[in-house]
Amino acid sequence: MTSNRRTFFKKTGLGVTALAATPLLGKAIAPEKKAEFAPRKIPYELGMAGYTFVKFPLEDTLRMTQRVGITHLCIKDFHLPLDSSEKDIEQFHQKCAEYGIKGYAVGPIYMRNVDQVNQAFEYAKRVGVRMIVGVPNYEMLPLVDEKVKEYDFRYAIHNHGPGDELYPIPSVIHEKIKNLDRRIGMCHDVGHTWRYGYDPVKMTLEYGDRIYDMHIKDVTEASSKGTSCEMGRGIIDFPALFDAVARTGYSGKCSIEFEKDNTDPLAGIAECVGYYNAVHDMM
Amino acid sequence: MTSNRRTFFKKTGLGVTALAATPLLGKAIAPEKKAEFAPRKIPYELGMAGYTFVKFPLEDTLRMTQRVGITHLCIKDFHLPLDSSEKDIEQFHQKCAEYGIKGYAVGPIYMRNVDQVNQAFEYAKRVGVRMIVGVPNYEMLPLVDEKVKEYDFRYAIHNHGPGDELYPIPSVIHEKIKNLDRRIGMCHDVGHTWRYGYDPVKMTLEYGDRIYDMHIKDVTEASSKGTSCEMGRGIIDFPALFDAVARTGYSGKCSIEFEKDNTDPLAGIAECVGYYNAVHDMM
């Protein structure tokens, strides 16, 4: 991405609408002068949610992730099981490194009882990440509150929209965590939020201070019938969403979780990456 | 693409830079009000240059083109030879229709002598398109000038950058055609223009009135060493380019000609499509 690209529209202050009235008179239109100042640094980055590759082993996951230029992976247990040995973990990291990829978190991990909470925190520690994306039963929240203090980890609760009895949308999560340690926050799945009928842009602006991870995906409609699709083909207003994300000062990962075509996802993932890149080149 | 997405930035009149200074105060930030007016209609469309699929038969070409949501194809002779029979042509169109795709032009076709010019115009007529993307030897231009009148076709001369002795960039084409019938114009290959060291944005603004087709591709550097890459990963300022294209009133196709990974191009093509879609959603 070049530095002058994303500043073009800002510098000129002219959108296409304003310019469209200008008739083309042969060679009479002078080229625009390019912006000379540096673009604003976006403090967050694109990532990959491991779940995207639920049908693939690690090597294929890394190959496809590398191909679209993503270097941060949220590790799912089907690629690195919760009971992995130290050697398994070492080999996992080595394999990731071969593709220039680094795990930045683990999850989502469901935690229905004390053992599962304990296991997840120990797992994250052994894997060497500082964030768990989790789905704790409500009665586990006090224990999670202790654990984040003990381990000094962030714990991002994942919202799953329609059918999720515990955490369908960020406002529900917020109600449950607002009085807990601030290291407990959420992994905002913007697709599931819209599938529950709530605008993820508004949710981002309202609860952004507790959003620590994101699953980005477009969806076909704002109901339980909505399904995952390529960014830009669905109903989510991504330019507005990322504008909101930037406004909240978010500095985590925007991880692609692409669930369409899950036995052949690369083309759809790549389309999402192109969309994300263009939105950010124009911010 | 939703109607309110592309109008968000225009309506608010606020870029991320302006907003970034606003601190996040819990739930204090009110969601932005969405734009209510209709977005500006972009009069041009995404297309696919047949050359992208130089290593693939027609069926694979159509399958991949359909998958990325493109419905307009510039037909290359390796998919429909110049000496195709009426039946071949009928079967070609039928196969395209099965994938919801329509040929909008033929070419690029090199025309070094009278027979090749005659053959190309007859071919285009039999195929049923109204535009030829061509590369005529200079001495063929008077004949091409007669033919466009006779057939009432558009004839778009393709520029090929470094190594192209005839038509490296639009300004060279323009010099050759400026006094010929206005149905003779150019197919602006923006990647090859930059590879020749000329900014395709400036070329678009200067010669847009004679640009009738486009090959869009990003390139790694502005020299003959530059190679094709995914849109957004190279040096072309596509937001500025499409702003320029829109300003000229262009109403043709912006056809992806992706030359990287030509035995496995789908992921790269998809990334280009995502990039194109986002730029246009934000225009």
Biggest sheet descriptor of chain A? 8 strands, parallel, barrel
CATH class of the largest domain in chain A: Alpha Beta
Rounded to the nearest angstrom, the radius of gyration of chain A is 20 Å
What CATH architecture label of the largest domain in chain A applies?
Alpha-Beta Barrel
* N→C terminal distance of chain A: 12 Å
- The poorly predicted ranges of chain A are 1-38
| Sheet/helix structural class of chain A | alpha/beta
**Count of runs of 4 or more consecutive helical residues of chain A:** 11
According to DSSP, the number of beta strands of chain A is 10
Mean pLDDT of chain A: 89
Helix content of chain A: 25-40%
Q: Tell me the overall shape of chain A.
A: globular
Seen as an oligomer or otherwise, the chain set is homodimer
Describe the protein in words.
2 copies of one chain form a homodimer. With 283 residues, the first copy, chain A, is of the alpha/beta class. Chain A has 2 domains: 1-39, no CATH class; 41-281, Alpha-Beta Barrel (TIM Barrel). In chain A, 37% of the residues lie in helices and 18% in strands. Chain A contains 11 helices and 10 strands. Chain A has helices at 8-12, 16-20, 58-67, 86-98, 114-127, 141-151, 170-177, 190-195, 200-207, 238-247, 266-281; strands spanning 45-49, 72-75, 102-111, 131-136, 154-158, 184-189, 211-216, 218-219, 228-229, 253-256. In chain A, the strands form 2 sheets. Chain A has an 8-stranded parallel β-barrel, surrounded by 6 helices. A two-stranded antiparallel ribbon of chain A has the order 8-9. In chain A, helix 5 packs parallel to helix 6 and helix 9 (200-207) packs parallel to helix 10 (238-247). The radius of gyration of chain A is 20 Å and the shape is globular. The two termini of chain A are 12 Å apart. At the A-B interface, helix 1, helix 2, helix 9, helix 10 and helix 11 of A face helix 1, helix 2, helix 9, helix 10 and helix 11 of B.
